[in-house]
Each structure stands twice: as C-alpha cells, then as structure tokens.
Amino acid sequence: MAKGESEMLNSERMSPRDLKERTQQFALRVIRLTRALPNTPEAWVLGKPVLRSATSVGANYRSCQRGKSKADFIAKLAVAEEEADETCYWLELIVAAELLPQERVELLLNEAREITAILTAAGKTAKQR
C-alpha cells in the first residue's frame, strides 16, 4: 500500500480494505445486471463495455495498492477513477436506450458515482501530500 493511502481513504470514512470489498461487490452487481440485458445487438454493444469497465475498477484499485511509488499509486488510482466514471456513462446509456428500466439501474449508477467520487478525492489528497 502506498504511503498515506489509508489516511486518504479514511478521510472518506472508508478503509482500503472496505473499498477493495466495495469495488468487488460493485463488479458482481454489474455482472448480474448485464445478465438481465435483453438478447439484442444494442444490448451486446453496451453490455460488454459496462462489464469491462465495472470489473476494471476493482482490479485497478487493487493494483494501485501495490504501487511502487507515490507517482505510481496516483497513476493507477487515476485509472480506477476513469473506469468508474466510464461505468457511469455505460449505465446511463443502458437507461437512455431503454434496455433496462431506470429503477433497475439507479442504485448501481449511484454506487458508480459514489465510487468515482471516493477515488477522485483520494487522488486529489494523494497529489497534495
């Protein structure tokens, strides 16, 4: 774990272990959501990238914990943040394209936004230290 990481996450009231678990649960929820998509070409096109980006959030967060330096930690954390934000985009498109009802996606979209905000705040804190 990079120096100061636990301080950064504790400012958000979340330990590194909690965020690791939260991002993994998030990925599992997106996996279940993609299983509910209709069997149509447009659902395949939107389902694949949302699955990829959502599962990448946790993988990249885990990778940043193994950062070799502060700069490496910050770079890897930024990738996790970008993937979380990209997941928001794909979830928004799934709703806009009426592939799933908003009620089905809303809680997951809120979780993606919260994870994005946590990772953004952690990155800003890391840069300031």
Description:
The chain has five helices and no strands. It is 81% helix and 0% strand. The longest helix has 27 residues, at 70-96. The chain is mostly helical. It has a single domain (5-128), classed as de novo design (two linked rop proteins), CATH 1.20.1440.
Map the helices and strands.
Blueprint: H1 5-10, H2 16-35, H3 41-65, H4 70-96, H5 102-128
Outline of the structure:
This protein is mainly α and 129 residues long.
Average pLDDT reading: 90
Domain count: the total is: 1
What is the CATH topology classification name?
A: de novo design (two linked rop proteins)
- Assembly type of the shown chains? single chain
Please, what is the CATH homologous superfamily? 23S rRNA-intervening sequence
Helix content: over 70%
SSE string, helices as H and strands as E: HHHHH
Biggest sheet layout: none
CATH class: Mainly Alpha
